[in-house]
Amino acid sequence: MSTLLLCIGLGIFLSAGNWQLNRAAEKQARVDSFENADRTPLTRLPADAAEAESLLFRRFAVEGSYQAEQQILLDNMVSGGEVGFQVLTPLRLNDQTWLLVNRGWVKGDSNRAALPNVNVSPELRSISGRLAFLPAPGLRMDQPAESSAGEVWPRRMTWPTTADIAAALALQDGDRLLEWQLLLDADEPDGYRRDWQPEAMGPERHLGYAVQWFSFAALALIIYILFHVRWVNSIK
Fold first, then answer.
1. Mean pLDDT of all residues in the chain?
2. Same domain for 116 and 232?
3. Range with lowest mean pLDDT among 48-57, 129-138, 203-212
4. Which domain holds residue 210?
5. Could you give the CA distance from residue 126 to residue 81 in angstroms, rounded to a whole number?
6. Which of 40, 146, 148, 222 is the most buried if burial means most Cβ atoms within 10 Å?
7. Angle at the Cα of 223 (from 222 to 228), degrees rounded to 5?
8. What pTM, to 2 d.p., does this model score?
9. Average pLDDT for residues 12-30, to the nearest whole number?
10. Are 25 and 64 members of one domain?
């Protein structure tokens, strides 16, 4: 029985450790992509989400008009230890294509009903930033994102997908919302706090978790060996 328990425990600990190592490698790849993004700016927008994933954090420029009357406030976003919102403003690139521009983080009010003033001029403009996907929770349940009720704008939403936002915007037939966002460059006007980072949790923390899981495996093996040695000695 003890051998079976050891095998189960080692399987769990080693699998968890390897999973953390893989996550650390993924996070390191994202950090590298973020740091190398300036070298090769994009000359065109990705065709789909799969191509966008391969071009993550690359810089690109677009021209369009902010749709200030329909903005999204990403709720429960933390910056500098404070809780607030990230401001997503739809940018209309042409007659049928829309892009979400993340204009940065703004502090929330202690009164949850009070929303920040994020108004912006709708004139035609050229802006630049980094390609990224919307922030997402560690575990997403198969249910719509939480949203402020009614038709009030700006609309407060928690962990929305682009599909959730497209539904809230009630786009016309033929219109499409691109499946990624643009992280507005820090030197662009009409933005808020923009200390963009590739990951909230860096690869170092995952490496630390991996060491912990492998340590549990080693400890379980040591305890098993000591227990087995004592048992053998007790029957001699």
1. 83
2. no
3. 203-212
4. 1-38+199-236
5. 32
6. 148
7. 100
8. 0.73
9. 75
10. no
* d(C-alpha 140, C-alpha 189), whole Å: 33
The C-alpha atoms of residue 147 and residue 154 are separated, in whole angstroms, by: 11
Residue 69 located in a structural domain: yes
pLDDT per residue as tens digits for the range 187-205: 999 999 999 987 655 566 6
Whether residues 213 and 184 fall in one domain: no
pLDDT at position 90, please? 97
Residue 214: the pLDDT is 77
Question: How would DSSP label each residue in 130-147?
Answer: EEEPPP--SS--SSPPEE
Q: Are residues 98 and 112 in the same domain?
A: yes
Q: For the chain, what is the domain count?
A: 2
How many residues are recorded in the chain? 236
Could you tell me which residues are beta bridge partners of residue 89? 101
Report whether the peptide linkage leading into residue 154 is cis, meaning its omega lies within 30 degrees of zero.
yes
103 in Cβ contact with 184 (< 8 Å):
yes
Report d(CA 206, CA 210) in Å as an integer: 6
CA distance 100 to 182: 6
Whether residues 114 and 171 share a domain: the answer is yes
Q: Tokens at residue 134, please?
A: 């919307």
